[in-house]
Structure formats: C-alpha cells, structure tokens
Amino acid sequence: xxxxxxRTRQKGRMDLTDWLAWGxxxxxxxxxxxxxxxxxISSLKTEAEINSFPPALVPRAAQTITIEGxxxxxxxxxxxxxxxxxxxxxxxxxxxxxxxxxxxxxPQETFRVPVSxxxxxxxxxxQWSNYTEPLKQFNFLRYLWNTVFVTVVxxxxxxxxxxxxxxxxxxxxxxxxxxxxxxILSTMMIPLSVIMVPAFMVIVGLNLADNLWxxxxxxxxxxxxxxxxxxxxxxxxxxxxxxxxxxxxxxxRIYWRIVLPLCAPALAVLAIFSVIWRWNDFLWPLIxxxxxxxxxxxxxxxxxxxxxxxxxxxxxxxxxxxxxxVTVVFLFLQKYITEGVAxxxxx
Amino acid sequence: MTAISMRDLRKSYGTxxxxxxxxxxxxxxxxxxxxxxxxxxKSTLLRMISGLEPISAGQMSFDDxxxxxxSPAERQIAMVFQSYALYPxxxxxxxxxxxLENLRMDRAEINRRVEAAARMLAIDGYLDRRPKALSGGQxxxxxxGRAIVRQPRVFLFDEPLSNLDAKLRVQTRSEITKLHKQLKxxxxxxxxxxxxxxxxxxxxxVLNKGKVEQIxxxxxxxxxxxxxxxxxxIGSPRMNIYPGKVVSADGTGVSVESAHLGRFTVxxxxxxxxxxxxxxxxxxxxxxxxxxxxxxxxxxTMTVEQVESMGHETFVYGRTSxxxxxxIVHVPGHFEAEMGASLAxxxxxxxxxxxxxxxxxxxxxxxx
Amino acid sequence: MSxxxxxxxxxxxxxxxxxxxxxxxxxxxxxxxxxLQRLIGVARMPYVFILPNMVLFTIFVFVPVGLAIAYAFxxxxxxxxxxxxxxxxxxxxxxxxxxxxxEPATCRYNLFWTAVHNTWWYTLLNTLGxxxxxxxxxxxxxxxxxxxxxxxAVFFYPVLLSPVVVGLVWQWFLARxxxxxxxxxxxxxxxxxxxxxVGWSRAWVVYVSIxxxxxxxxxxxxxxxxxxxxxxxxxxxxxxxxxxRQFWRLTLPLLMPNLLVVTVLLLIRSVQVFDEAWVLTNxxxxxxxxxxxxxxxYQTAFSPELRLYGLASAxxxxxxxxxxxxxxxxxxxxKKAEV
Lengths: 347, 368, 339
Fold this sequence. Notes:
- The structure holds three protein chains of three kinds.
- Chain A has helices spanning 2-5, 16-42, 47-50, 129-137, 140-171, 177-186, 192-205, 212-220, 223-233, 238-246, 251-262, 264-280, 283-288, 297-307, 312-344; strands spanning 60-62, 64-65, 74-80, 86-95, 98-103, 106-114, 118-120, 122-124.
- Chain A is α+β, with helices and mostly antiparallel strands.
- Chain B has a six-stranded mixed beta sheet, with helices on both faces. In chain B, strands 13-12-11-14-20 form a five-stranded antiparallel beta sheet. In chain B, strands 15-19-16-17-18 form a five-stranded antiparallel beta sheet, with no helix packed on it.
C-alpha cells in the first residue's frame, strides 16, 4: 500500500516536493468541499438549529417525548441538580429564568427548576421538510419548471440551429462563407455586459420582455457551438455526403440522416455545456424576467435571499436543489467535460 | 439502358481549366473504362457524369436528353466510391434501403429489392451489421449492392478495387464483369490500373492532362496505340522506346535506322512518312527475342542489369550500349543470365510501332 | 468477434427503429426543405441553413452592438430609441466629469468612479491570485502520478456551479452564525461579520472568485503542461539540472504562451465581474465597497428609480472599448504564440 502511494516520478521515493504536492491537493480538496458540504449539512437542519451558535457539525433536533395529559410532545432535557445528581426531565413551559418540568416516570408531578440547571438533549435529525416546504410556500416548483423549460428548449434549439449553420459552413463552398464564419466568431468578443441595454430594448421591441422565450431565443445562437460543431463536421468525409446525394437524399435529409448522427460526440459535448449554461444563467434572465411567475431558479433563489433574509434553512435547501443536477451531470460526465474544456477552451 | 454522349465537355475552377473539351460516346449497355495517370482528370470527368461536379461548358446527354443541370438523383445514376462511403451509423440493410426510402418507395418493394441484391452479392448474412463489422471485401460488395438496388440507368465506379488486396481484387474484378453481363446496364469505370481496364472494359478511354488520348477496344489500344502516351501507358511491362530515322519509304515498306536497333525494314507502307524524318520506334517486350538478328530483321545488344523470373516467364532488363532507357525482353519459361553479360536480341520488324518524333503521333499502317 | 456480432445486430435494428420514428417527425421540416431545394437549387441551400442562426445573431448581437453606441448619445428615460432625444457627448461628459480621477468623491457620478476603482483593484488581485493558484494547482496535478483525474475533477467542480449558488454557499459559510465564525469563536474567541466590513468583504469577494473560476484556468494550464514533451526533462536530468532550475528554465518559458492567453482571458472576465459578487455581497455592499462597473451599468439602466439608459450605455461603451483592447491584445498574443 505504501509502495503504491509513493509511486512517484522518482519511483519509490517521496521527496519534499512530492509531500508538498500531496499536501496542496488534499488541502485544496478540503477548500472546495467544505463550503459546499457545509451548505448541504446546514440545509438539513431545523430552523432553531440553523440559528443557534456556535453551529453544530451534524444536523440535530431537540429530542421530544409524548406524555399523557400533555397536549403537545415535550422536549427532553437533562437537569443537573446542585448536589451533582442528574435527571432526565421533560420541559412543560418556561417563564423567564424558571422552568416547569416533569419527570417522565411520574407525569403527574410537575416542579419548577432554574433554567441554568437544564441542558437540552438533542438527537441526530434530518429536517427534510426544508426541501418539501418551499414547494408549498414559495413558487419553487414554478421556478424549477421555468428553468427546466428554458434549459431543454434552448439546448434543443441550440443543437439544431448551430449544427445547421455548422453544416453549411463545413460542407458547402458558397460566396461569403468565410465572412459569415468570421462574423460568427467575432460575436465571441461581445460580452452581454456591453450590450445589455440595447439587447433589452430589442427584447421589449419584440414583445418578449418578462417572457421565457426572451431568455431562450437570445441565447440560442452561440459562436462556441457553431465553432465546435464545424470543426467536428470537417472530419466527416465528403464522400459520405456525395454518396447520399447520389442516393437521392435532399440536402436537408443529408444533414438530418447522415451528418447529424455522425456528429453525436460533438453534439453531446455541446449539449452538456448548453444545459449547464442555461441552468446557471443569471444576468440575462435577471434583466428580462420581472414577474415572479417567470423567474428561473437562479433568479428566484436570488430574490428569496432578499425576501426571507432569515429563512436560511429554506434558502440552503433550494441552493442544494439548484446545484444538485449540475453535480450529478458532472459526476457522470466529468471526463468529457474536463477534456472538452481543456481541448476547446469552452466554458 | 442508357447511352451517354459528351460533347466538348469542359471543367474549370476559376480561370484554371482542368478538362479541356472532351468528346466521348458510350453506347447503351456498354462497359467503359476511363484510365489515365493520377491527376489526368478521370475522376473529375466521372463526377461530371454523375452530376456531383457542375459542368462548366459543353453538353452531356443521356439518351439524347440534356442532363447538364440535373442532380445525380435526377440523372438516376448510382456510384461506387473509392472509399465505399458506406454510412457508418447505418446497418447494411439501411445502407441499401436509404436511397430507396429517399425516393419514397413502397416498403415492400424496398425489402424485395434489398433482399434480392443481398442474395445476389452474398451479403444476406450481414444485413443487420454495421459496416465497421465487415471485412474490406464485404464492404465493397455492400457498396455495389447499394448501387444495384437503385436499378440506375448508369453505374459509375470510382477506383472501387484500389482498397482491396491483390487476390480479392482479381476476384472482384470478375464479379463486376459478371454483374455487368447479368444487369446489362451501362457502366463507367475509373481506374489508374490498366490491367483492370484491359480485362473488364469493352471500351477504354485513355485520358491525360484533361484530354482524351485515345478511345478504343482494349486490344486496339494494345495493338494500335494512337500515340506515344497510350503506347507507354497500355501494356505491362511498358513498351520499349528507341529514337530512329527513316532511311527510305515506298509502297512496299519503310526502311528505318536506329543506333540501338541497326537497320531494318517495316514490311508495309505507311502513309505520309518522309525519308530522313526523325521517328520513335516502339517495341513491346513480348515482341523481342533473345538471339542474333537474322538478315533483314532488326536487333541490338544489351548489357543485362536485372533478370526477373516468375518461373513460367522471365523479364530481362538491360541497356543497349548507347541508350539510357532500359530495354525489356520477355522470355517464355525460366531463363538465367549473369549481370553485366552482353545479350543480343532481335525482333520481327512487322511488329515495330513507328511514331513521329515531333508530335508523338502514331505513323499508321496505310490500309489499302 | 462472433459473440458481439451476434448481439450487436439486434441493438442496431432497435436503434434504427428509433431513427425511423424520429424520421417521421422530421418529415414536417424535411418536406418543405426538399421543396425549397427544388425551387432554388442545391447551391443556394447553405444560405437557407445559416439563415435562422444569422437572423438570431443579427437581432440579439449585431443590432444591439449598433444600438449601444446610438444609446450612448441619447438622454431621457424612455427605453425605445426613437423616443429618446439626442444629447451628443453629454453622457460621456457626465461620466468623465471629475475633479480628480483618483478621488471618486470629486466626480459628478462618484458611483461610476467608485465602481471603476473597485473593478480595477478586483481585476488586479483576482488576476494575480487566480493565476498563482491555477498555476500551482496545475503544477501539482501534473506531478501527481496517482489520483490526478480525481483531483482535477475536484478542482474543476466549482466552475460548473451557478454564481447564485456560489454566492449563497459562501454567504452562509461566512455568515455571523457561519462555520468560519464557529471556528473563530472556538479558537480565538472572536467573531467577525466578514461581509459587513469593507476590507474583509473585498478580500472575500476576490477569494470567492478565485475559488469559483480557478479550476477553468487550471485545466488550460494543465493542458499546456502536458503538451510539453517529456524528453526535454529527461535531457535536463541527464545534464544534472536541478528541479528548481528545470521549472524556471524549461517549464515556465515553454508555458509562457499559454500563461499569457490565460492572463488576458482573466483580465477580460475580471473586468466584467458581477454575478457572484452581487449575490455574495447582497448587491455590492457594504455601502459601495463591492460595486463594480457592470453593476453600475445594470443599476443605472434597470433600477426603477433611475432608468438612465443613455448613461448606462455610455458606461458600456467605455467598458467595451477597454475590453476590445484586451481582446485584440489576446488575439495578437495567440497569433504570436503560434509562430
């Protein structure tokens, strides 16, 4: 095992730089994992726990006990009497510094003790209602549906229209082809932040303000997508296209039945990125969408932060729901994603 | 069955003309081979026939119908590509039926045709495989099958055998010939391999630098090459070439002198030949014999450089004393000779081909 | 060979049935497209294929680019360009009207200049910080012989999160009742309200940005490192070159083109900082300590009480010019790196 762990470039010997490298990698992993992990843990805490300080490292909740004759379940406490003896009690009510408690063994007898003698018994508890409550209380399902709608429709359109353009740019010679390609690539240099005001005016002019289609249509054409697909299509032999032409296929049918299926790997990469872009998109939906019914998850989540400043237990649960799909996608496709980024510089 | 005629066909890319006015007639049901060295324009010409390459000028007709502006589908041609161009994501069955589906043909008819073609080519066992799972020969047959099911007016083949190994190539050659006999469809076959052209085609078109050098039956090209290019291109090994001079010419024959072959008389009249004119003499290796020249016959001596014996026949390569070009002599059976040995060879002057040194054109036997 | 071949055909046949199903759906587009092809000819079809995308590019990119400049020369609070009065260079004059550019308080639009200053400092620190951590991490991962894929994935993971999620996760981590303060109380018996103190909040904005984006740049640098041929190092080892010297004399020079591209990319993206900083700091706070240029543009244009589209566009144009210079220098560097 040690031999395996120490298999470095020098074979068998760990020198100082190897230790430093491992230290850096492990420390970095903690730096990445802790904030996210902390949010996940916190999202499962009760409201009372989330506001208690110092924070507990595991989600807990007060232990309760149902006593005959009491209308509600009572919380369980340990009483440390002045003489040093310990006793488990159930808290009936608390007034100022005094508390009325009872011994669960003798539920009829209540007695008063100072609060300072009591410490609460807590048990491991996952507050799943943090996840279910927002569904009822807020428009959370609506946000989720809007986001899924935008993501799916925009990705489908992106794949379709960008591959169609890439097909024309890679498999035909026509006047202006290079100019069109250069023009499309040049849009990479124009960030949204520079054109957000007139872009919004265009949206208003098209009557798409506060409309999910305003978010979808403006992000469908991506220079990155066209570029990625074009490069891939250049590797498909022209013979196949001519064979299909001889086989009496129309040009669109050649695209649909020959080129598109053969582009599947590149389409998959673009689809993954497109889904992540749309899912995470923030500034543009923030500008276009104004009524809560049309919010996407990201906008909804951001607005809840202001609205329910103290309801962190709900905000964190929704944050986890928001990061979950991306995380799952990454877990399964991390190899494709990291290699796709490394080779194309797409983000 | 379709006859094809090409009249002054030209192709240019921008200002660069690559096909310079070609006239070819293909009879209905004929098997025509287009041969020539690489870059001669034979593939471009085939693509112009198919409709994949636009025609810059001239006229192409199928059965008297002008097809210049028709798409490949409208011309009803089928083509077998050098790379086969099988659709890698489709099964063999789908590869065969794709073209028919594009024509919105009836499903039952499609199935009937696919099954028939598959049986004919013995690929019916692989119909549900993808091309990747097939051997080179099987892929080749699928490519042919894809052409057959269309029942096209014309079959076009673009060097279809060049990706096969030697044994398979010979076998497929005869299969394609058989196919042509069976289907009786017009076929145009592009190849750079003159053996393929000679063994398969009924008519051969020799192309060079975008021009037709000669059109004719295979044996015609071999026996009566129209010029030095065809003489050098057709026949394996190539024809021996020597410079020479006409000494005298009359109605009974032509007397020729060459530094390499001595003096000999071709025993037939040749029209338009002049005494003292520079000519080129061409002799096929099979027409040279080892041994001293008999009186009246031509002959020379060469220094042996190499001997290739295949057991049943032997090629002797040597140089006549002054010449730079190798002389090749075909000897039946096994033959051995020392390198550097001096060997005499002779030939029957009747088999000598004479070409004008200036134009390279054949000086043809005057027919009376 | 024979076993998979006997299974594969069934799968092939099944996938083809799916294909035929899709085919039927696609006929809806295919039939009119084929008719169009007969009408206009094959040679014009590529224009049909690029048309939808070009229309969308025109509407959502090219037209806005033209309008951005037009807006910058208009005033008023109407959104539609034809309702807006022409004011000439007024917006630019207003933005640039300043007693001392180093003192935002002396400027007519002091928020703009505060944003410019904040952005400038953020860009400097974020670029240097990200570059350092990305390079170190890439070097470390390149050195690991085991677990490289795992660590690469771990370091890249934050890149895929949304800015809102990153902002909220860190806000919670740094909150008054957050984990960090829990540790501080435990060990140092103190608590810091990080995001309400100017210095701390600025530091955390930079830190969170590095945490968020570092993985992306790390991947690019790692790809560059792995493109350096192994035998160069082997030759250096035979020459007895020390590891330290190998880094300075071999790795760094060979990586330089890569690092330059990354640096310019970082600069371009840093100037446009908005999303995660906005969420993390609850809108640029405390006060205007973390208000950046894009936030200024966004607020100036879209907060209900301002709606100063002209002024926002003028700021956009100024930022756009800066970005253009950076982008062109990137293209220039990329071209130089190729040679």
